[in-house]
Write a structure and sequence with these properties.
By secondary structure, the chain is an alpha/beta fold. Helix content is 36%, strand content 13%. It has 13 helices and twelve strands. The protein has a seven-stranded parallel β-sheet with strand order 8-7-6-9-10-11-12, sandwiched between helices. A five-stranded parallel β-sheet has the order 2-1-3-4-5. Strand 3, helix 3 and strand 4 form a beta-alpha-beta unit. The longest helix has 19 residues. The structure holds NADP nicotinamide-adenine-dinucleotide phosphate (NAP). NADP nicotinamide-adenine-dinucleotide phosphate binds next to helix 7.
Length: 326
């Protein structure tokens, strides 16, 4: 813990070497947590006291308690993530605190991982790998781990056709998939160029072989996919979620995977992260990843550099490059 300082920037995790170099060029003092995974709550509340800037992770809850702990010196919260459902943006705005995120620099990495989940679940890659490792005798046979044909006209339904949704669509186009998506104000010309059809959510769920979620977590999208939506998707269909866990009712998903309401799921995010619904852990037809969507080396550096640049800009009295608008 360091003494209060008007222009101190606090980083709630241990920065990479590249990010550390950028921090060293800043004019004011910088404090950093020791662990790459971030700080526990009491340590963060203590270290943020008197800071002017906070560079934080999506696992840090930035709420009234934290803002009270920081005190009136705090001018900017720079989240090292594009999603900012961990930040009470209205509470920050009420105190004149700028909130920033890291849009654009992680689209390709996150879409790569979503497409990896699409292929892994459709073609049962993880299940088949576990089977080989089990030592069970096997030989080639026509019915061994048969799954969904991805590039022979399968339909991908994208819920949230923003930056990452469009990056996912570009990958699906290369696999000759038919692509449908929920309406989006931000998709623009690229959606037309990629030949994406727009459908209301219920129609998209009925039409798609694979549904991939790319919308933000907001009060409107919490449990957007529940028992009824899974029933609309139907047997053999696949759900991929690299957006945020609470967008899916995880108990309903576990039940739907267990009773064959849908065929498979690929999840990078969980409703009560890092906890995973115990029924999911026991199911063979779900691939479970520990929230690694943006975990490319260069991508992580770009995210950290953008978060640091946002904090630097606000401290220097300049407009933040990527502010979040309340
Ligand atoms: P974005 O460019 O803002 O795109 C989000 C899209 O969702 C927009 O097209 C938006 O439509 C749409 N949307 C909003 N509410 C919706 C609803 N109720 N139903 C359907 N669509 C809705 O965001 P992004 O940069 O692509 O990131 C998307 C999300 O991915 C982030 O919020 C984050 O939670 C998640 N993410 C996860 C990882 C990971 O590690 N797994 C990494 C990066 C991001 P409008 O344009 O009409 O507003």
């Amino acid at each position: 813990m360091s003494a209060p300082n008007q222009d101190r920037l606090h980083v709630s995790f241990r920065p990479s070497d590249r990010a550390r170099q950028a921090l060293e060029t800043l004019p004011g003092p910088v404090t950093c947590a020791a662990a790459p995974s971030g700080q526990d709550r009491s340590e963060l509340l203590s270290d943020v006291r008197g800071a002017a800037a906070l560079v934080c992770l999506l696992t840090d809850r930035v709420d009234a308690e934290l803002l009270d702990a920081a005190g009136p010196s705090l001018r900017v919260v720079a989240n090292m993530a594009v999603g900012y459902d961990n930040v009470d943006v209205a509470a920050c705005a009420a105190r004149g605190i700028t909130v920033t995120n890291t849009p654009g620099v992680l689209d390709e990495a996150t879409a790569d991982l979503a497409f990896a989940l699409l292929l892994a679940t459709s073609r049962r890659v993880v299940e088949a790998d576990a089977f080989v490792r089990s030592g069970e005798p096997w030989s080639w046979r026509p019915d061994l781990f048969v799954g969904l044909d991805v590039s022979s006209g399968a339909t991908l339904g994208i819920v949230g056709l923003g930056r990452i949704g469009l990056a996912m669509a570009r990958r699906a186009r290369a696999f000759d998939m038919r692509i449908v998506a929920t309406p989006s104000r931000s998709a623009g010309d690229e959606a037309a160029r990629l030949g994406i059809e727009t459908l209301p959510l219920a129609d998209l769920l009925v039409t798609s072989d694979v549904v991939s979620l790319h919308c933000p977590l907001t009060p409107d999208t919490r449990h957007l996919v529940g028992a009824e939506e899974l029933r609309l998707m139907g047997p053999g269909s696949v759900l991929v979620n690299t957006a945020r866990g609470p967008i899916v009712d995880e108990a309903a998903l576990a039940a739907a995977l267990a009773d064959g309401t849908i065929g498979a799921a690929g999840l990078d995010v969980f409703e009560n992260e890092p906890a995973v619904h115990p029924e999911l852990l026991a199911l063979p037809n779900v691939v479970l990843l520990p929230h690694i969507g943006s975990a490319g080396r260069a991508t992580r550096d770009r995210m950290a550099m953008l978060a640091i640049d946002n904090a630097r800009a606000v401290l220097a009295g300049e407009p933040a490059p990527t502010p979040v608008h309340p």
